[in-house]
Amino acid sequence: MSFTMLPLELIDVVCANLAPTDLAHLSYICSSAHQAAQRQLYRHVSISSSRRNLGVVLTLARKPQIAHYVRSFSMELDSYFTLLRPFYRQISRALASMTELTSLRLFVDPTASWVLKDISLPRLVHFACPFNLDSYVSNFLKHTPALLELEVDSVFCGLGRPASALAPSSVTQLQHFVGSSLAAEVTIPSRPVQSVQLTAGDLTEEVATRLSESTAGIAILSATTSSAPATVLQLLSQRMQCLVHVQLLTTYSFPEAPDVVSCYFICFTTSFSYHTSQTFYERIAGALNAFPDLQTFELSGMHWGSKELKDSDRHRVWQSQPLKSELNSSPEYLEIDPYSDLFFAY
């Protein structure tokens, strides 16, 4: 049996295992396999200035039947790369025909959010762009009911525009958010967001309060704060009890270098206090102990080790840094191994 006599299902299987160059050749030389080859060739489209394949956009804009095959579309241009407005119109035209799209990465001119005007992508699951959450983006998100992952306003471009309000019916299934604190305050409340990465803006009390309004409870948080780390952690422990992984970068100006203690034991009895005042590291550890489910914490690149507790009301105890300590056999203290791989800062 010749290749051209195979059932269409088998031709699709064959095409799915071919390299892009082979698919291109097959689509030219075999009319019966042309459509199957094009379906695979344009299923995942990645465009960048380094690849010099901008012409693909024109093909998709002019041939909507081919654009219909696209399931993931990524376009990432260098900041120095300039496109004229007519080309952006072709991008918008191509996107309008990608009705089966599930993933869209559109890192182009941050002021070109208008390319999303009148675009409806009902199957879109992942969307990432550098645009501010303006009226064009806000209206676009109304027509992405299946969206689970959103990255918006994630690249600093100096625009600093306030975020537009999202309709309550927009992105109601959203689970992961990456972007500025301004966009997060508008996007996260009343939506089941579980993972948040703030790429710009300050994690203030107001922002933390808005993030805590997620209907699912945030489990993963990465952010930058200008406040004292212990203060922020205490605030988060009150607002976000579901946190499992936290990564903080602080720009706080410490009046002096954080002090270091020569030994580290944590006392569980309230009748005895080893230190008359808490050190910086003890305050951090004390704040971390207030999180019932926290597993990992990183502060400005330093990983804070921890140890699980057994037969205790507390799930985990946190250590400040790997310090050599004199072991105390008193049952009032929990001894922490400073040489465990878990406790080395990097």
Task: Quickly list its features.
346 residues; alpha/beta; eleven-stranded mixed sheet; two-stranded antiparallel ribbon; 27% helix; 18% strand; disordered C terminus
Number of helices, counting only DSSP H or I runs of 4 residues or more: 11
Cα(first) to Cα(last) distance is 62 Å
Main beta sheet: strand number and arrangement? 11 strands, mixed
Number of strand segments: 15
Query: Averaged pLDDT, please?
Result: 81
Q: What global shape is seen? A: elongated
The proportion of residues forming helix, as a percent range, comes to: 25-40%
The residue ranges in which pLDDT falls below 50 over 5 or more consecutive positions are 260-276, 322-334, 338-346
Secondary-structure-derived class: alpha/beta
Strands of the largest sheet, in order across it?
Answer: 1-2-3-4-5-6-7-8-9-11-12
Supply Rg: 26 Å
Question: How is this structure best described in words?
Answer:
The protein is built from eleven helices and 15 strands. A hairpin with a 7-residue loop joins strand 13 and strand 14. Strands 1-2-3-4-5-6-7-8-9-11-12 form an eleven-stranded mixed beta sheet. The protein has a two-stranded antiparallel sheet with strand order 10-15. 27% of the residues lie in helices and 18% in strands. It starts with 7 loop residues before the first helix and ends in an 11-residue tail after the last strand. It is elongated, with a radius of gyration of 26 Å. Helix 2 packs antiparallel against helix 3 and helix 4 crosses helix 6. It is of the alpha/beta class and 346 residues long.
